[in-house]
Automatic annotation (TrEMBL):
Record flagged with keyword Hydrolase: yes
Active site residues of this protein: 127 (nucleophile), 280, 308 (proton donor)
Protein name in UniProt: Proline iminopeptidase
EC number: 3.4.11.5
One GO cellular component term: cytoplasm
BP GO terms, sorted: proteolysis
Disordered: region residues: 305-328
Keywords linked to the UniProt accession: Aminopeptidase, Cytoplasm, Hydrolase, Protease
Gene3D superfamilies with a match to the protein in the record: alpha/beta hydrolase (3.40.50.1820)
Length: 328
């Protein structure tokens, strides 16, 4: 029976490691008036690994520390520019995002690596974090020991069409899409991303907050295979997330025109594990498959009973299995 296979498949799934607190943290001056919050937990002399959060603009959550054996790893986490505890926050509509691009984030990672006197580290990222991980590794392949990637996001035009046109994810989430679409007047719906940009970027809270809430409502609508309640976020966090996400989406992720797949030869030698949920509606598995076709040397897993969430049981299992196998 199918149910029997599902139940048997869940036996022996790896769980998150226990909660852990940082033993070191700070703010790193990365130039352009920006300071990036960073923290380190786990073994101070363990194997270095850097965690890259999603969004972009999502910021850190305590659970992100728990994908790694704290006795084996020196776990580095940071809030990317203008989100989380990094300063200044994009939750202030006066903060300009012109110095927040993928090359800036890659440079921030290098500054942080040098600040912490780390020679080489494992890179772990999901969703937008997978994008940044690929961009960083291609820019600095000699600094990466292994890669663990989840929910692959290539930021191709076809990927954005899936998210922001009525012929993509909207067909699977019609009520949520209708709410997202109907927050914009009929005459502007031919380009929803641009229409939202005008509103999210408006200095008036009466304009930008409703738009940011609607934008994030659609963003959170398809994160997991089974529905979960969206997180409760304050207005500043919602605006931060919406502004930064829109900023990157409307600029093609600030990636090279040829895209990330064109640079795979620079990282082909790096041991890597790629994991994607079969029913991931945010980053459908065709993106992970395209990466797999370009990089067959990387270990590849499609999780049959998972969506986009990194903590869904099957996805979590493969991620922790990978970090356990890459332990010293």
């Amino acid at each position: 029976m199918i149910v029997g296979r599902v139940l048997l498949g869940r036996m022996g799934l790896k769980e998150l490691y226990p909660p852990i607190e940082p033993h070191d943290s700070g703010l790193l001056d990365v130039g352009d008036g920006n300071e990036v919050y960073w923290e380190v937990c786990g073994n101070p002399v363990g194997k270095p690994v850097v965690f890259l959060h999603g969004g972009p603009g999502g910021g850190l959550l305590p659970g992100f520390r728990r994908f790694f054996d704290p006795a084996a790893y020196r776990v580095v986490l940071f809030d990317q520019r203008n989100c989380g505890r990094s300063r200044p926050s994009a939750g202030d509509p006066r903060v300009v995002l012109e110095h927040n691009t993928t090359p800036h984030l890659v440079a921030d990672m290098e500054r942080l690596r040098e600040q912490l006197a780390i020679d080489r580290w494992m890179v772990f990222g999901g969703s937008w974090g997978s994008t940044l991980a690929l961009a960083y590794a291609q820019a600095h392949p000699g600094r990466v020991t292994e890669m663990v990637l989840r929910g692959i996001y290539l930021v191709r035009p076809s990927d954005e069409s899936w998210s922001f046109t009525p012929t993509g994810a909207a067909r699977l989430f019609p009520a949520e899409w209708t709410a997202f679409r109907d927050a914009i007047p009929v005459g502007e719906r031919h380009d929803l991303v641009a229409a939202y940009g005008r509103r999210i970027g408006d200095p008036d809270p009466a304009v930008h907050l409703p738009a940011a809430r609607a934008w994030m409502g659609w963003e959170f609508s398809a994160n997991t295979l089974l529905p979960v309640d969206p997180p409760e976020l304050d207005d500043a966090t919602i605006l931060t997330f919406a502004r930064i996400t829109h900023h990157y989406i409307s600029n093609g992720g600030f990636l090279p025109e040829e895209g990330l797949l064109a640079g795979i030869d620079r990282i082909r030698h790096i041991p890597a594990v790629v994991v994607n949920g079969r029913y991931d509606m945010k980053t459908p598995p065709d993106q992970a498959w395209a990466l797999h076709q370009a990089w067959p040397e990387a270990e590849f897993h499609i999780v049959e009973d998972a969506g986009h969430g990194g903590s869904e049981p099957g996805t979590r299992h493969h991620l922790i299995d990978a970090t356990d196998r890459f332990r010293p």
